[in-house]
Fold:
Amino acid sequence: MKDDFIPLAFDRIPEAEQLERARAFCELMRGRRTVRAFSGEPVPFDVIRLAIETAGAAPSGANQQPWRFVVVSNPEIKRKIRMAAEEEEQTNYGHRFPEEWKAALAPLGTDWHKEFIEIVPYLIVVFKLDYGESPSAVDDGTMIRSKHYYVNESVGIAVGVLLAALHNAGLATLTHTPSPMGFLSKILDRPKNEKPFLLIPVGYPAKGATVPNISRKPIDEMMLVFE
Structure:
């Protein structure tokens, strides 16, 4: 098995540069905000492609890379997704969401209207691959199923990398989880082993866009250190 290994390409940088990079990236990411008011201004597709390629570099259980990123710019498909999402969300806000959850959402000003799904130039629909499929060795048309491990953890990490890459490229995003999300599989004609994980509208903020006045936990509330 050692013959299958290659040397690690790793550039060690000076401590001062480490701190500078860490501080700059922290400042960049702490400026990221979830946006719900988008502009329809076009976004270069190559930026989307590179961000997804970056997300694909995320670690995954047994390197199985159990993700699929479906990029949607077609107006008709976006409209179908919006209509289906709003139907589910209207039911959620109407009676499926418990009062405690609606109270937690209230400061964010959310409701069942999701017009941004049609407005943004791109939707990235993230699917998790519950298992893999490959043609059998005898080439008789049958498929061999392989179990995937740590699927949710792997896809969650990849999504985090994707959001960071998009923000780094100067784009705004929203993490949207209309529940249930089965309509995404149907509209986008995905196979049974791919399950919807997250819907990410991507674009530029609308002119005059506002965001809730919220704060982030200070480091002392997030981190414990044992020395």
In short: The chain has a mean pLDDT of 93. The CA atoms of residues 76 and 98 lie 33 Å apart. The two ends are 37 Å apart (CA to CA). The longest strand covers residues 194-203.
